[in-house]
Amino acid sequence: MKEVDLVIRGGKVVSPDRIVEASVAIAAGEIVALGHDDLMPPARETFQADGLYLLPGAIDSHVHFRDPGYPHKETWKSGSAAAACGGVTTVFEMPNTNPPTGTVEALRIKQRAAESSYVDYGIHGLLGDDTIDRLEELLEAGVTSFKAFVGNTFGNLPAPTDGALLEGFEKLAPLGIRTVVHAENSSIMARRQLRMEAAGRIDALAHLASRPAVCEIEAIGRVLALAEWTGARVHIAHHSSRDSLFLLREAKRRGVDVTVETCPQYLLLNTGDMTRLGGILRLNPPIREAHHNQPLWDALVEGVIDMIATDHAPHTPEEKSRANIWECDCGFPGVETQMPLMLTEINRGRASLMDYVRWSAANPAKAWGLYGKKGVIAVGAHADIAIVDLEREGVLSEGKLHSISKISPWNGRVVKGYPLHTLVRGRFVVRDGRLVEEAAGWGRSVKDVQRMPDPAPRNMETYMSNILATPAGVPPTATPRREAA
Ligand code: DOR
Ligand code: ZN
Q1: 308 contacts 262 by C-beta, under 8 angstroms
Q2: CA-based diameter of the chain, in Å?
Q3: 144 in helix, strand or coil?
Q4: Cα–Cα nearest to 350, from 395, 313, 296
Q5: Fewest CB atoms within 10 Å of the CB: 210, 214, 223, 225?
Q6: Is the model's pLDDT at 24 over the cut of 70?
Q7: Residue nearest to atom 10 of ligand 1 (CA)
């Protein structure tokens, strides 16, 4: 048998449907054998993973690495180091940089910045009124997907008009390309915020009051209507509210190709934490009341929410700690803390480790056309692996984050379950909990391995039959029932 680069032995390999004790052989960055240790080829290096779990590296669909434009908040090098240390092997990076990723020129600047990445990456291009005519050339130049800031947030990129969004979806639907949507209603939020400010509200909860759940309900409803009409693939970013879940459940039932992410902060934090932490926890959509937490978990388990992302959105401590809530920048770093936070919940029995890899790796890989190469530990896949100690306990400390932004609402949180070693395409980028500095620049774009499946043909007829369709087995009524006069 030909000698391979590395065999990892003694660990338990986790996939969405099983956990098996198996050795993993890696050559040229790919998994070439998986199974009983006796069957492994000779290897230049062996790594003992006794007592540890091998998870497919997490794929974070939503990070802001701020580069170009805001290197004092984050760079590709620091952000991707944080990812690697958090067991994340692929990130998808957001276009609200400066310049925004809405022209090929801006994309080239970002691609150069990304050359320092420790982990693999996709780049979301900007879908806005003035980029509609450039979508194809942006795809050609390397974006994997698009992002529409339907809700206003950091960077103040204008929300696309409904007309532009429809046109964008019409263009992207036949290409099978998925668009991430920040789904909040900008005009409701702008008016509410002005009223709050006029009333002298500067407290943390005023932020939530300016962005009530109806902003998310309305925007998701609108986006789903446009997606269903056009057949475009969409992805709802940072889903935060229980009240819009019914729209997603219903759209999925009708066959709309919508994927949904939520983030640890929406599952685990609520207004009590907002009062305690103030601007540190200001983000968009806002942290909501406690009654949203459990329904979001339930929706993950049910499959209405597909995946965990982080909305890693770093700012400096000074930008996060101003007395007036409206002056605190929105967001905080999250890519490094997602895995220990979620593994802690798995340890508490809130879901299984198999559920977790479905949410952290398999489903994101499927959404972005990477499954098979990424998101799974299997022969032929990239050897993107997080080696995890489920028993390791610790306390999250913002000072130890690899992000430039050393301020986190998770500071001081007790966790159980840590990624100790991270491999990206067979190379250790983190070993024994320590970043392998020389691996900066190892990350590369996933564009080459991205294969979006062909889109289902859609037209007005299928849209109408979907709208008229009724739940399982009950044929739609031909004539609408009228109330007796
Ligand atoms: O809080 C947020 N911050 N939400 C977003 O959607 C964007 C992000 C940022 O870029 O800072
Ligand atoms: Zn974001």
Answers
A1: yes
A2: 83
A3: coil
A4: 296
A5: 214
A6: yes
A7: 154
CA–centroid distance, 311 to ligand 2, in Å, is 4
Backbone region of residue 381 per phi and psi (left: phi > 0; alpha: psi in -120 to 50; beta: other values): beta
Could you report the per-residue pLDDT of 375-384, keeping only the tens digit for each?
A: 999 999 999 9
**Rounded to the nearest whole angstrom, what is the distance from the C-alpha of residue 105 to the centroid of ligand 2?**
22
What CA–CA distances, in Å, run from 303 to 12, 239, 254? 25, 13, 15
Of 427, 468, 388, nearest to 53 by C-alpha is 388
pLDDT value for 481: 45
Mark 254-270 as b/e (b = at least 16 C-beta within 10 Å).
Answer: bebbbbbbbbbbbbbbb
Q: 475 in helix, strand or coil?
A: coil
CA of 445 to the centre of ligand 1 (A): 23
**Is residue 160 reached through a cis peptide bond, with omega within 30 degrees of 0 on the bond before it?**
no
Of 295, 161, 312, 284, residue with least CA distance to 211: 284
| Residue 17, Cβ density class (10 Å: 0-12 exposed, 13-18 middle, ≥19 buried) | exposed
Q: What is the pTM of this model?
A: 0.96
> Which pLDDT value is given to residue 35?
97
Lookup: tokens for 74: 């984050």
Distance 358 CA to ligand 2 centre (A): 22
- What are the pLDDT digits (tens) for 282-338? 999 999 999 999 999 999 999 999 999 999 999 999 999 999 999 999 999 999 999
Q: Is the pLDDT of residue 478 over 60?
A: no
Neighbours of 450 (CB within 10 A): 16
Q: Whose CA is nearest to atom 3 of ligand 1?
A: 331
Residue 284 C-alpha to ligand 1 middle, in angstroms?
Answer: 6
For residue range 240-261, list pLDDT tens digits in order: 999 999 999 999 999 999 999 9
Q: Which amino acids bring their CB within 6 angstroms of ligand 1? A: 64, 96, 153-154, 182, 283-284, 311, 313, 330-331
Mean pLDDT for 396-401 is 98
Shortest-distance atom of ligand 1 to CA 315: 11
Which ligand number lies closest to the CA of residue 309? 2
pLDDT at 96: 98
Does the pLDDT of residue 485 top 90, yes or no?
no
Q: How far is the CA of 334 from the centre of ligand 1 (A)?
A: 12
| DSSP per-residue string spanning 426-438 | TEEEEETTEE-GG
- State residue 470's pLDDT score: 57
- The residue to mutate among 60, 62, 64, having the most atoms of ligand 1 within 8 angstroms of its beta carbon, is 64
Identify the nearest ligand to the CA of 63 by its number. Answer: 2
Q: Which atom of ligand 1 is found nearest the CA of 182?
A: 6
